[in-house]
Amino acid sequence: MPVRRLRADEWERWREFRLAMLAEAPYAFGTTLAEALAFTEQTWRDRAATMATSDGTVMYVAEDGDGWLASGGGYVEDGVPNVFSVWTRPDARGNGQAEACVTAVIEWARTNGGTEIRLWATDGNDTARRLYERLGFARNGNVQPLPSDPSLTESEWSRPL
């Protein structure tokens, strides 16, 4: 299955995919569907352009023909690469697309000189936990409320590059 970097001109596809992920799995993301629905067209254009061209932010998509199956992105915070926006369409789960996207983010981080990569995952999201454990991540002890739903907690995970 091909995994590639999001292109700037795909902002509309990215918007629809992102809205689908927030609607289907609100417990897994720091942004709410309502917040994302309020974004302007320019916000979506700017975000797609940044993820397509920046050295400090990236988004990968797994696709099959014309459809996107999964996504996984990376950004750098305080000099450390982080994984974000990992999701697979419900009808495409179980075939390794999310793993392929996160692996692409890990390679991006390694290529850009990272020595460690981190991510936040909602506690109780066992599907995400299994994926991250398979890829060598482990909880590092940091815990915080999920920004989009403070009644949930999320744990930080990390792995060496």
Describe the structure.
The chain is of the alpha+beta class. It has a domain at 3-113: Gcn5-related N-acetyltransferase (GNAT) (Aminopeptidase). Helix content is 35%, strand content 37%. The protein has a seven-stranded mixed sheet with strand order 1-2-3-4-5-7-6, with helices on both faces. Helix 1 packs across helix 3. The chain is globular and about 40 Å long.
Topology of this protein?
Blueprint: E1 3-5, H1 11-24, H2 33-37, H3 41-53, E2 57-64, E3 67-77, E4 80-88, H4 97-111, E5 116-122, H5 126-134, E6 138-146, E7 149-160
Parallel strand pairs: 4-5
Antiparallel strand pairs: 1-2, 2-3, 3-4, 5-7, 6-7
Mean pLDDT: 96
**Into which percentage range does the β-strand content fall?**
35-45%
What percent of residues adopt helix (DSSP H or I)?
25-40%
**Major beta sheet, specifics?**
7 strands, mixed
Structural class of the helix and strand makeup?
alpha+beta
- Overall radius of gyration: 15 Å
CATH homology superfamily of one domain: Gcn5-related N-acetyltransferase (GNAT)
| CATH hierarchy class name of one domain | Alpha Beta
- Write down the secondary-structure element order: EHHHEEEHEHEE
Overall number of strands: 7
CATH structural fold name of one domain: Aminopeptidase
Strand order of the largest sheet: 1-2-3-4-5-7-6
Reported CATH architecture of one domain? 3-Layer(aba) Sandwich
Distance between the termini: 24 Å
The helix tally amounts to 5
Low-pLDDT ranges: none
